[in-house]
Amino acid sequence: MTNSQLPINYQHNLIDLLTLVETIKYYYFMEPKRLIQAIEQFNIIVDTYYSEANLQQHENIANPTIHLSPASAFTTYQKLLHSLNQQPLHHFQQGELLCDLHERHRRIYQTYITIQSIFNEL
Q: CB count, 10 Å around CB of 89?
C-alpha cells in the first residue's frame, strides 16, 4: 500500500489542528514574536491536510471501493478543511485573532465529535 492509499487518520489530524490553535493562543499572550510563525504553520498544515483529502477523493472517484455518503467521516472532514483552506488564518474575522481562533477551535472540535460518533456507529 502506498502512502497515498493509506487512509487518513481524521481524528489525529483534527487533534493536531486543535493543538496548533491552542499554540497560537499561547503565543498571542506569551510569545508574540513566535505568533506569525505559528499562524504560518497552521496554514501550512491545513493546506497539507486539504491536499491529502483532495488526493484521496480523486482516488475514491477513480477506484470507488467505498461509497461516500454526505454523512461520511471523509465528507465531514473534507468540508471543514475546505472551509479552513478558503480562509487562511491570517485573514482574521473582523480583525479579531482570538475570536477567529475560538471559532476555528469550535468548528474543528465539532467536526472531531461528529466523526467520532460516525465511527462509533459503525
A: 20
